[in-house]
Specification:
single chain, about 280 residues, alpha/beta, Rossmann fold, five-stranded parallel beta sheet, two-stranded antiparallel sheet, 10 helices, about 45% helix, about 10% strand, globular
Amino acid sequence: MTALELKRVANVIRQDIISMLAAAKSGHPGGSLSAADIVATLFFNEMRLNPKDPHWEDRDRFVLSKGHAAPVLYSALAEKGYFPKEELQGLRQTGHMLQGHPDMKKTPGVDMSTGSLGQGLSAANGMALAGKLDGKDYRVYAVLGDGEMAEGQIWEAAMAAAHYKLDNLTAILDYNGLQIDGKTDSVMCSAPLVQKWQAFCWHVIEVDGHDIDALLAGFAEAKQVKGKPTMIIAKTVKGKGVSFMEDQAGWHGNAPSLEQAEQALKELREEAENLG
């Protein structure tokens, strides 16, 4: 896909996020919206996938370590054809498939059940190491939240990934600067992140997480790295695409009302028109 086409996909994903959260009356819009460009670029350009065979052994793997942002993943899976788009309206509802956090046993296309923060990178390590041991050429992608950088298990996983030279692993940090309790630097400062990941022997790339061309270049660079894993630090805006949600920690875990959803969708549809 071209960068423009991927921008259109990201816009559709953002509309899906708002619609499903409004229907559910609960969930996490801020971090789902901030990751939309990253997820759109991965699922619709970078990753080798087969929606007709979700367990295809040679597929690329995806781990959403920040599992509360499940709506962005569910939208990508539905738009990719893993299940009917109508399922999105059943988010967080009894008797429906899509739970508040990803469940690999219930949802086609989900490679890892996540939600307990800090654990996703360890799971991604295991997938990447298994690929090495099995002689497979698939790649593993893990999206992390910046609040997760305060979890000790992240750094244990970072050390292990470098030790095992997992150059088939790319982690992407959704660096929106906010978490449920406010600014990440105020809750638990994790700076300087570039130098920390480099000190753990990772190749580090910094990009604007809403610039599709920059994301494409970053993923292309990661594929050329040998002997070490790659961390892409993607600077993003929490709530991206919806004016009243942008850069507001209060929208970490609050669903929009029907009126707010209508306003958000109006803005996103206007953006879609501008994209052509």
